[in-house]
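Q: what does this look like with DQA bound?
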Amino acid sequence: QLITILNGPNLNLLGQRQPEIYGHDTLDDVANSCTAVAAQFGLRCELMQSNHEGALIDMIHTARQTSAGIIINPAAFTHTSIALLDALHTFEGPVLEVHISNVHKRESFRHSSYVSLRADGVIAGFGVQGYSLAMQRMGHILAPKG
Ligand code: DQA
């Protein structure tokens, strides 16, 4: 089974972008660690990123056909996008939301998430390790004997 890992705007710059908040690991590092965890459960994963809201929506629509679960860091769209929420409502499998930083410790506009209205679980403030923890959770949900 395939797990789609979606990343929103500015996360292509992970590793260079505000490293004091988001750390030095890159999205390639995230893909590698998630692939290793997924394999422990007999799962595969594909990591994608876009700076464009509509492209992320299209990726969710594609995942409806291809993927058993979605791990998503919607980045700033977390706090603004009803359209992403609606797209996630069309997806039937588990959805896990990841934030690298502890959004609750930051500006108040980061405290609310449209995506959380659909997410089955949320991780925030665990750094990039949050992605592999979410993948571990996905494994337990989808392949409980793995
Ligand atoms: C983020 C938190 C968001 O508030 C921010 O806009 C991001 C990244 C995180 O991973 O901590 O771009 O989703």
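The helical segments are 19-22, 27-40, 53-66, 82-89, 129-142. The radius of gyration is 14 Å.
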